[in-house]
Amino acid sequence: MFATHGIPKIMICDNVPFSSWEMKKFSKEWCFEIITSSPRYPKSNGFAEKFVGIAKSLLRKADPEKLYEALLEYRCTPISGMSVSPSQMLLSRKLRTKLPITQTELQPVVHKHFRDGLIKKQARTKLYYDKQAHVRPEFISGEKVMVSVGTQWEPAVIVKKHSTPRSYLVKNKNGRIVRRNKCHIRKTNIQTNKELNPDYHDLGDEWNICGNNTQDNGLYHSNNNPVNLNRNTSHTTSQNGYLYNNNSASSNPVYITRRGRNVNRPSRYDDYLL
Predict the structure, then answer these.
(1) Which of 67, 123, 171, 219 holds its CA 20 to 30 A away from the CA of 266?
(2) DSSP secondary structure code for residue 223 in this structure
(3) Domain of residue 165, residue span
(4) Looking at 85, 109, 133, which one is the last position of a domain?
(5) Of 45, 40, 43, 36, which Cα lies nearest the Cα of 15?
(6) 214 contacts: CB under 8 Å, gap ≥ 6
(7) What InterPro entries does its record include (predicted)?
């Protein structure tokens, strides 16, 4: 391929086998750069994945003995949304197929502005994609994160940002440094400079309820410091965690949830002693 089309400056490919030592040595000898896609993220190499889908479609539709004929027809078919075919973009001329064609149509014609149409088509596709997509957060070195491993999320630490877009080098719980895309990394509330209650680390700074303890008297704890959430001192707390209003004749109990929301006991239970 290099003898036919020349040596490229940059070659975008998969990690296996193009990230091997022999391939890196070959790229240095031939003076070109290899950029590999993100591991376990085929979207980062969408151009190659799209061509794989086209090749599979040709294999399904064409017989094995007519595969090269189907490939020739594909290269001579204009691209959707454009007026030129892949052969015209690469060779500046149409290829002769089994379909009838005049001799003048086979004359070489240089298409200079086809790339503008290609850029407009990609911009239109990006516009519709960005309507449902969102920007993922950036990470810094030393930040504690969660990394996707199969169907589970495991703790890890960001080592540094990779040279390729949207990729980071992370150190997993086994001490192994791997490369992962942003879609495989999530931020976590567990930071190096902040200690959280291990029983309620997923709740952030929310209050822990201790209403079942008679010695608390309705006090709620945060970092082992008792705090009275009820600014109105006319309430008392029973052992079942409900608050009773001493000034009210009906003494309608109110229960405060973990997130601080008041829950009134249904009126049908007024005749019962809880």
Answers:
(1) 219
(2) T
(3) 143-187
(4) 109
(5) 36
(6) 239
(7) Retrovirus_Pol_polyprotein (IPR050951), RNaseH-like_sf (IPR012337), RNaseH_sf (IPR036397)
Per-residue pLDDT tens over the stretch 157-199: 999 999 888 899 999 988 899 999 999 999 987 654 443 333 3
Counting other chains too, the contacts that 12-18 makes at CB distance below 8 Å and 24 or more residues apart are: 12/36, 12/37, 12/45, 12/47, 12/48, 13/37, 13/45, 13/48, 14/45, 14/48, 15/39
Amino acid making up residue 34: I
Question: Which residues sit opposite 169 in a β-bridge?
Answer: 160, 179
Q: Count how many residues are written for the chain.
A: 274
SS3 229: coil
Does pTM top 0.70 for this prediction?
no
Instruction: Tell me the pLDDT band of 274, cut-offs 50, 70 and 90.
Output: low
3-state secondary structure of 23: helix
How many domains in the chain? 2
Tokens standing for residue 98: 């089994």
**Dihedral of the alpha carbons of 122, 128, 131, 135, in degrees to the nearest 10:** -20
Which residue has 């997130």 as its token pair? 259
pLDDT tens profile 190-231:
654 443 333 333 333 433 433 444 444 444 444 444 444 444
DSSP 184-216: GEEE-S-BTTB---TTSGGGTTPPBP-TT-TTT
Mean pLDDT highest for which of 89-93, 210-214, 234-238?
89-93
Cα 3 from Cα 249, distance rounded (Å): 95
17 and 97 belong to one structural domain: yes
Q: Is the domain of 178 the same as that of 104?
A: no
Residues 151, 78 share a domain: no
Residue 1 has pLDDT above 80, yes or no: yes
* Count of Cβ atoms closer than 10 Å to residue 62 Cβ: 16
